[in-house]
Amino acid sequence: MSDKTYPVPAEWAARAFLDADEYAAMYQASVADPDGFWAEHGKRIHWFSPFTTVKNTSFIPGQVSIKWFEDGITNVAYNCIDRHLAERADQVAIIWEGDNPSESKTITYGELAAEVNKFANVLRNRDVQKGDRVTIYMPMIPEAAYAMLACARLGAIHSVVFGGFSPDSLAGRISDCESRCIITADEGLRGGRKVPLKANVDAAIERLGGGVDHVIVVRRTGGAVNMEPIRDVWYHEAADLVSDECPAEHMNAEDPLFILYTSGSTGKPKGVLHTTGGYLVYASMTHQYVFDYHEGDVYWCTADVGWVTGHSYIVYGPLANGATTLMFEGVPNYPSVSRFWEVIDKHQVNIFYTAPTAIRALMQSGEEPVRKTSRASLRLLGSVGEPINPEAWEWYHRVVGEGRCPIVDTWWQTETGGILITPLPGATALKPGSATHPFFGVKPEVVDAEGKVLDGATEGNLVIADSWPGQMRTVYGDHERFEQTYFATYPGKYFTGDGCRRDADGYYWITGRVDDVINVSGHRMGTAEVESALVAHPNVSEAAVVGFPHDIKGQGIYAYVTLMADVQPSEELRKELVAWVRKEIGPIASPDLIQFAPGLPKTRSGKIMRRILRKIAEDQFENLGDTSTLADPGVVDDLVTNRQNKK
Ligand code: WTA
């Protein structure tokens, strides 16, 4: 931990929306009178019919219910597009930068309106109606944003599935929300390599044995794909037949906007459900203040639309604010490790938002690939997805930002809809590695294992004491699981699953997950999911998966595998198991290390002692804690010896 402090630069104090005193006053007002505060800020979006109630929320176990602005009527696509047309029809809404540096284009708000309306009409012609679920499995091309906004326009609920997920993972997500319509592309393109999206959709539907009526295929690479008659349609052909006008459905503030599946500590991924009004108010307000977005700024978030960061901070937040948002199809190291910085120069990017894992990977190539670009347009840097270690922070600040750009280290989750703990560039003195202070309306608390609220400088688990408008409303189709997962551990409070330290200056430092979720390169992976993929292999009898510190990914995936009695461990089998998990879940779930274990440490009641497995994976052999409750303590010695032999 570093306790170095970077004050707000003078130019920032002059230009930012808020300084330190204004932030403090506004924060106080937001927690003292949430109804009054959000009644005012709820007006930042357009309502067809205004809300008359503001906050109606309960965290009480058995009656958890979260409603904001509940009688207001609005439409998210109207807010992201139509509302801007009078003033900004010719302003660029989306800058698209292709995987190949010679491919890029701009889309104005006027063009965005026509594209989204056409897309909505194509969906409508396939009988997609308000409340229907539509699965979007797309590369990072503008049509991904059009598809999301088209759903929002019609009141259909989109479920975007990251293009790196396998047919199996995709199938699970299609069937959980029963989507009958899928939007995809022939192939994706990343780092010069093709991703067989349509073929994966076909395989997913085959696995489901049907249930999908429509597959809309956007042509991206022109690669050959199988088109099933009647079910499948090329988007460009369907779009040619429809008008570019489509009315925006009148939506209640609490009508669902989207489902996004995310990994938890147990079971299969949960469908996190976000609704319309509160989500948009929160996404747009955080985007404005955290990135201090001013008229004319060019803003770039490098996330994929398959993750919540892409939803809130590539599409909905920026477009609701009439911003210019950059969408990047490629990867940081293609064609060279200067790509990010070249894109910044090419499009004169002012605000750049990325993940620590990308910074750590690029740091390895040294300063030269950064220094040879100008980056003079940059004013602000952001970080998201995992704790940023102070070394990476300092490099980002000194090399990428030339020492002049503040870094906003934004802590939040799929469940929170938007940023909860973050600096504001004109208001907050920065400490490298700290997400600093809560955003408006957010009441963080640090609690001990029993739920006792800890005061002052302390360390424990992070909970949020009251609701904010962007909060998830339920787990799709399973409200009981919503209550159990987030409100049962510390009754009456939202449990984040993260550990946290608060220093003597009241700064928050997120220390990482305290549950069985691993954060691999900023992507959430449930250990239970990787385990169930491993045990699905015919040679595996049992598996336990934990995280371990990884220089670039933040955390890596460490799998302990017990084989069937008649199977011998081999290098070949190890490779086969890694490939197996990639195929079952997707490349992001590939185990970094597999240790064959004749036995796993278990309590006498048969529960795997993950605490011990984590320590062994971290090489903390001295620190294994109490092993006396194990059914067979000898198992641990075997594991340690094996691990040490591998080093
Ligand atoms: C972690 C991503 C430290 C955290 C927006 C959280 C962070 C999980 C930060 C959510 C940060 C996200 N500092 N940790 N600035 N941002 N995390 O749902 O563990 O993909 O619980 O949402 O990422 O990941 P998710």
From TrEMBL:
InterPro entries: Ac_CoA_lig, ACAS_N, AMP-bd_C, AMP-bd_C_sf, AMP-binding_CS, AMP-dep_synth/lig_dom, ANL_N_sf. Keywords: Acetylation, ATP-binding, Ligase, Magnesium, Metal-binding, Nucleotide-binding. It holds the Pfam family AMP-binding. Coiled coil: none annotated. Residues 82-466 form the AMP-dependent synthetase/ligase domain. The modification N6-acetyllysine is found at residue 607. Its cofactor is Mg(2+). Acetylated. Deacetylation by the SIR2-homolog deacetylase activates the enzyme. The keyword Glycosyltransferase does not apply. One of its GO terms (molecular function) is ATP binding. CoA binds at residues 190-193, 309, 333, 521, 582. GO terms for biological process: acetyl-CoA biosynthetic process from acetate. One of its GO terms (cellular component) is cytosol. Residues 23-80 form the Acetyl-coenzyme A synthetase N-terminal domain. PANTHER family: ACETYL-COENZYME A SYNTHETASE, ACETYL-COENZYME A SYNTHETASE 1. This is Acetyl-coenzyme A synthetase. The gene is acsA.
